[in-house]
Specification:
The chain contains 14 helices and twelve strands. It is α/β, with parallel strands linked by helices. Helix 6 links the parallel strand 4 and strand 5. The protein folds into two domains: 5-254, 3-Layer(aba) Sandwich (Aspartate Aminotransferase, domain 2), CATH 3.40.640; 258-395, Aspartate Aminotransferase, domain 1. It is 37% helix and 14% strand. Helix 2 packs parallel to helix 9 (244-254). The strands form two sheets. Strands 1-7-6-5-4-2-3 form a seven-stranded mixed sheet, sandwiched between helices. Strands 8-9-12-11-10 form a five-stranded mixed sheet, covered by helices on one side. The chain binds pyridoxal-5'-phosphate (PLP).
């Protein structure tokens, strides 16, 4: 792969101010200035290396941002109090009243709801398209389009965006390509494929311990500066700031991301293969039966595999619910939304994380009521886990 990013976590090196092996946490909301003049210069954005107020930036958030920019091979990055904070700030920075967004129709339900119900009220309109249909993307672009928005691997249908080709369309039409890479950190590096801005819900794999809500926007230094601008920056003014204590704890978890992603991928690949063999309708980018398997293979970093998320179709919602309850009783994992935890998490997106999408649209895009999304955990003995799941499947007549 060209432009291999500095995502080798071994390259991270930050010392604390007393030589600690972890950077010191900057536990302050506000910062002193030695002169009144340097305070006013800082407000005008003229002083490098001065901290003003933690909603703007603080050293702990900057450390985490730098590490994530290195991971995503972008010039810079800024962290947020949630993935939604990162997404909404980016879209509102790029779009003003009268502008238009082309979005994948399968995106996280919160993103869908924001575009459909909230941005719409600000006179920012959205065309939702099948992101695997390049002609549909091209045909939806108007003179007012400012952004093409999609997830590298979509939530929950696991559709794969052909980022290289979509980036070409974006460049030809002068539109920014924004990619949510939450499902595929390290496996996919969207900036290397032409994306302008890369977003993560840090809440998921990057943090990995299901104890934090956080997000990040990775992009050019100019765009990150725009977000932080005290006069019209969406990050500064909408105020979705990450707390510095949390930033410090996420930075510590980031150090094991490469190991975790390999294990999530290995376990998910094993289970997906077994489920498919058992005749269960299984969607996983690592399976040859996935419609975009070859495309995905052409641009992932194989070291990190096909990711930790898979779906199966249990048919009726009632069957899916019984099956999930049984799995939880048998300690396969937790009936919970979110992903990237050490335990397997499972939920039915149609009635949870994608419930903002109206039923008819869900059907049209193939989001069935009994579709179960699994975030596969870090189980050491995944073969044993499979046997337990198989017993649960038998009890609800799935196999
Ligand atoms: N993007 C994706 C793909 C998600 O799955 C989610 C949450 O589920 C988000 C963004 C929103 O992130 P957060 O919950 O951190 O605000």
């Amino acid at each position: 792969m060209k432009n291999k990013p500095a995502n080798k976590i071994q390259d991270l090196q930050y010392f604390g101010e007393f030589g600690g092996v972890n950077p010191s946490i900057s536990d302050s909301s506000t910062y002193t200035f030695l002169s009144a003049k340097s305070m006013s210069d800082t407000f005008e954005g003229n002083t490098e290396g001065c901290y003003l107020y933690s909603r703007h930036t603080n050293p702990s958030n900057l450390y985490l941002g730098e590490a994530l920019a290195a991971m995503e091979n972008t010039e810079s990055a800024t962290v947020f109090g949630s993935g939604m904070g990162a997404i909404t700030s980016t879209l509102l920075q790029l779009c003003k009243s009268g502008d238009h967004v082309v979005s994948s129709r399968t995106v996280y339900g919160g993103t869908y709801a924001f575009l459909k119900n909230f941005a719409n009220q600000l006179n920012i309109s959205t065309s939702f398209v099948d992101i695997t249909d390049l002609e549909a993307i091209k045909n939806s672009i108007t003179n007012d389009t400012k952004v093409i928005y999609c997830e590298a691997v979509s939530n929950p249908l696991l559709e794969i965006a052909d980022i290289l080709k979509i980036a070409e369309i974006a460049k030809e039409t002068g539109v920014k390509l924004v990619i949510d890479n939450t499902f595929s950190p390290l496996s996919i590096v969207p900036a290397n494929l032409g994306a302008d801005i890369v977003i993560h819900s840090i809440t998921k794999f990057i943090n990995g311990t299901s104890d934090t809500i956080a997000g990040v926007v990775c992009g050019s230094q100019d765009f990150i500066n725009e977000l932080r601008d005290v006069n019209d920056g969406a990050s500064m003014l909408l105020g979705s700031t990450l707390d510095s204590l949390r930033a410090a704890s996420v930075l510590k978890n980031l150090r094991t991301l490469h190991i975790r992603i390999k294990k999530h991928s290995e376990n998910a690949m094993y289970l997906a293969g077994m489920f498919e063999k058992d005749g269960i309708r299984t969607v996983y980018p690592g399976l040859k039966s996935h419609p975009s398997h070859n495309l995905y293979n052409s641009f992932i970093d194989h070291e990190y595999g096909y990711g930790g998320i898979l779906t199966i179709d249990a048919g009726k919602l009632e069957t899916a619910n019984k099956f999930m309850e049984l799995m939880q009783e048998n300690n396969v994992g937790y009936l919970a939304v979110s992903l990237g935890f050490y335990k397997t998490l499972f939920s039915t997106p149609g009635s949870s994380t994608s419930s903002e999408i109206p039923e008819e649209e869900q059907k049209e895009m193939g989001l069935n009521e009994g579709l179960i999304r699994f975030s596969i955990g870090l189980d050491n003995d995944i073969k044993r886990t499979y046997q337990v799941i198989k017993e649960c499947m038998k009890k609800v007549n799935l196999i």
